[in-house]
Amino acid sequence: LETTKMELNRKARQMEKYPDMKIIIEGHTCNLGVTETNLVIGQMRADVAKNYLVNQGIAPERIKTVSKAETEPLLPNTSEDNRRKNRRIEFVVEQ
């Protein structure tokens, strides 16, 4: 959680430095549970990150959020450690 906060603070500083930058925050989950639930969890994960950035002074219209659920794992969901790494957010700079 502290690592995520540090990364969000870094992203806020970057967005302050580049005021025209717009991003998409993707929320990811592991493969446990049903897809419908994972879509909601992924969206909540992305929305929490967006709210944090907005609270840091970033305009909400510069940030879109999307849930990828379990569709794009970093690692195979074969262990709890891998599943934990698949539960994440990612930033994509809009082109």
Note down, in words, how this protein is organized.
- By secondary structure, this protein is of the alpha+beta class.
- Helices cover 46% and strands 20% of the residues.
- It contains three helices and three strands, in the order αβαβαβ.
- It has a three-stranded mixed sheet with strand order 2-1-3.
- Helix 2 links the parallel strand 1 and strand 2.
- It is elongated, with a radius of gyration of 14 Å.
- The mean pLDDT is 96.
Please specify the SSE layout and strand pairing.
Blueprint: H1 2-17, E1 23-28, H2 35-55, E2 63-69, H3 80-86, E3 88-93
Parallel strand pairs: 1-2
Antiparallel strand pairs: 1-3
Task: Give short descriptive properties of this protein.
95 residues; 20% strand; alpha+beta; 3 strands
Q: Structural class of the helices, strands and pairings?
A: alpha+beta
Main sheet, how many strands, which sense, barrel?
3 strands, mixed
Q: Could you say which overall geometry the principal axes of the C-alpha atoms support?
A: elongated
- Gyration radius (Cα, Å) is 14 Å
Spatial ordering of strands, largest sheet: 2-1-3
- Model regions low in confidence, pLDDT < 50 over at least 5 residues: none
Q: Based on DSSP secondary structure assignment, what is the total number of beta strands?
A: 3
Query: Termini, distance in Å?
Result: 29 Å
Please work out how many helical segments DSSP would assign: 3
Average pLDDT, all residues: 96
Order of helices and strands: HEHEHE
Q: Helicity level, as a percent range?
A: 40-55%
Strand content: 15-25%
